[in-house]
Design brief:
homotrimer, 8 helices, globular
Chain lengths: 200, 200, 200
């Protein structure tokens, strides 16, 4: 699972970076930017850990997470203009991060002997809650309720992962396949403006 | 306590339904509506469980809760117009739900050996936090701070339940009486526009 | 540590009072004011305890905290005008409270065997999250992201406390020195309008 762990850190880095950019658009100061970056990067997993009861929550016990976020804040502030030009690349990594976060979230919930539906919810939460908190902190109606399908790929991929866990022997692709599916569906969804029907 | 448990599920159903209606007023998509419904239905109890340390939180261990919420989302989206016409009936069930949630919240806190004041707070929180989260997610100033007395009946009924627990032998009416009191006071409060004095 | 505990209660009292004043500016009713006061006074420590896994969270097990908050609500509502005239004195106590909350937060995190960086974060969170929740509940962009340096003194003082814990033998000044440093830097920062650079 070392490869997944590496992707986890990449996802954390990219989410933190997106937090810095959001904060800079809102003209927050350096500390505010660091807080938003931090919350964006660890918010989903933190809520998941508190709900499951896995405390002290994950990032408190893994200095790599804090290191990666610190790096993202420094680079984000120093090279802001350059990074904004890389938005497309960032979006790619962001989608990879969402895939990995979902699978790792499902994995953790299952290790606490929770059911399949709850595990998929925890995986999805790990991946998408991030945006909800960031938007609440910056006082916007959370994008998740207004945008292109955002959580649907996580639900699909998380469910696939849960099924595979019961059908196949554990191996790297078992986790990587669903993660890539999530990333792929999300990229397609945004490119083609897929949206869920509104309620009215 | 099977009767209370049934009322608990009814309350969950009605709260989820009210979440769907709020979401549809805000033109959220289907997924957003499901999230709001879910959060509205389980938010208060979830925060209570996290504060007390009863994790994994309640709904993760009871598939009936998830089932009831799912049903509310489907029915809420399919029969939106019809349900809006039923608003008065819904409000009745909503008030029943608040009464039951309060009593069950007090009960749980006491089972964790917490004091009476804290138990009444946890009961009230279980019942009313729901509205606070829903309003934060949809970016409004929480109604609880602006409207007719909303939490006061819960505090009264919760305290009564706590007292009865020390005075009488356990029986169904011990829980049902205070729950009905909360429902009754709330219905009266809204009908007669009772309000607490403002601070100024 | 009885002196620190007394200061802790003073900080709680002042934070609760500031919550009442905020609520009265927003024309909340009496109950809303009590809720805001309560959340402002215990919010930071509560989140800290949930993240660390020290549940039931602190104030549930210490009736003094609830008593002090209740007192602040009653006095805040009765003597509102007089208290507003005392704003400068209040700000002094508020700064003392932030210093004490930071040190106590670091202390608790260390007692759970967490690392230094995490402990300083938990101390800072205990002290400043308060304002974030209050602003979210009243639907404002959290001041912490816009104002004079707010968390920086906590980070400095918290780190100093952590270092002293490793260098000196335990004594009252070990905790009191960093707490006073935080209070002092904060008072100076506000008086001279120190601000962190913005990101742009």
């Amino acid at each position: 699972m070392n490869f997944l762990y590496a992707l986890d850190l990449v996802g954390t880095f990219v989410f933190a970076l997106s937090g810095v950019l959001t904060a800079s658009e809102k003209k927050f100061d350096v500390f505010g930017a660091a807080v938003i970056a931090f919350v964006t990067a660890i918010g989903g997993g933190t809520l998941r850990d508190m709900l499951i009861g896995d405390t002290p929550v994950g990032w408190m016990r893994d200095m790599n997470v804090l290191g990666v976020i610190g790096l993202a804040v420094v680079l984000g502030i120093l090279f802001r203009r350059g990074i904004i030009r890389l938005r497309n690349t960032l979006f790619l990594f962001d989608s990879v991060g969402i895939g990995v976060f979902t699978v790792l979230g499902v994995q953790k919930a299952l290790s606490f002997h929770l059911g399949g539906v709850v595990a998929v919810m925890m995986g999805t939460l790990s991946a998408v809650f991030v945006g909800v908190i960031r938007d609440i902190l910056t006082n916007e109606t959370p994008l998740i309720f207004r945008r292109e399908i955002y959580a649907t790929p996580c639900i699909l991929g998380g469910s696939l992962y849960f099924l595979l866990m019961h059908l196949a022997r554990p191996n790297l692709w078992l986790a990587l396949g669903p993660a890539l599916l999530i990333t792929g569906v999300r990229l397609l969804a945004v490119k083609r403006h897929w949206a869920l029907p509104r309620v009215h």
